[in-house]
Amino acid sequence: MQKLIFIKYGELTTKKGNRNVFIKKLTNNIKNILVSLNYTMKSDRSRIYIESNDIDLVVEKLKNIFGIHSIVIAYKVDNNSDTIINSVLELVKNESFKTFKVDTKRADKRFMIHSMDFNKMVATKILKNMDVSVDVHNPELHIKIEIRVEGTFIYFNEIKGLGGYPVGIQGKSLLMLSGGIDSPVAGYLALKRGVDIECLYFESPPHTSVQAKNKVIGLANIINKYSGNIKVNIVPFTKIQETILRNVKEEYIITIMRRMMYRIALKFAKKNKMQVIFNGESIGQVASQTLSSINVINNVCDIPVIRPVACMDKLEIIDIAKKIGTYETSILPYEDCCTVFVPKHPVINPTIDKCKLYEKSFDYETLIDEAINNIEVVSNLENNYDDIL
Ligand code: ATP
Ligand code: MG
User: Fold this and answer.
1) Ligand 1 pocket check: which of 176, 207, 315 to mutate, most ligand atoms within 8 Å of Cβ?
2) Which pTM value belongs to this model?
């Protein structure tokens, strides 16, 4: 008996026209995530098969991959009725259950016994050897037997996959990633819809610490579990921030700072052929996220900015952060550049005209180009989050 994993595509199979592209993307993503493991992988139009000596670890990693409907641990045997029946018996002896049901699917019509008859043969064998009974409506153990041309697969439960689309199927976008709770969740949600992301983080040393930066890299590392392909671009933001502090009235500091962040994100995205920006803004959460602020800040940007958590309550965002494993890192205390310079009374109804007036007082284009030219790139993130703080 050969133990292996197979993956069901689910939603992908309904996308007939694009099916090959989907499968190719998904298999590539699986390769990225399993890079450190020994395994072999084969795919056909309906599923992907993976063999490995480390099945449990592979399954753990597959649970983080978008585009997978379910993961099945199966046993493959020859298409011989006695072999199948004996193998099923051997396998169910390791399971604890009182009631069961057998479901046979006979895709290989050369196998002469009809599915219903074969269900009965298997059930009879189990009933003779174990103290259990059949329950076709609500069985504790659902025994599935698939008789296919290449062999017979026996399996019980399916492990639910993450669903969504394979990362990258929607091209690449830029995620503004801070050390907070919201933006890693926004990144995760982007990945879920098949959007590959690259991260942009603004740091302001010495006002922000190395720990703050490592925290962001740590967060990128965690969401990389769902991608395998993430890079973090670190923008030196100190000079711009200090210039803003010197030239802008206190209540407008954050508004202008965010317009500068958006300008840098926009320029960087265009340079790298990314069509969309993602961030973790949530309506009303802070002064810079009122609708007027979002309008005034967004005004400097002529590509779409998608805010996956815009309409979520903080508690809903926290729930996702906990589920995806970013929460514990996000709540570490190190401050970001947004939090070190928060004025006492930030404007909640800024106007574009006032922003333009303040921005006339310094040459931000040169500063922006300089910041972009000095971006530090952190790539080759680990699949597994090692504590790098
Ligand atoms: P988060 O919890 O995601 O950090 P927040 O509640 O702290 O969000 P803000 O600080 O106003 O809210 O930031 C809103 C969004 O702007 C963040 O979610 C993130 O996408 C982006 N952002 C803020 N600070 C930075 C930064 N230093 N580098 C990159 N992006 C940032
Ligand atoms: Mg923040």
Assistant:
1) 176
2) 0.87
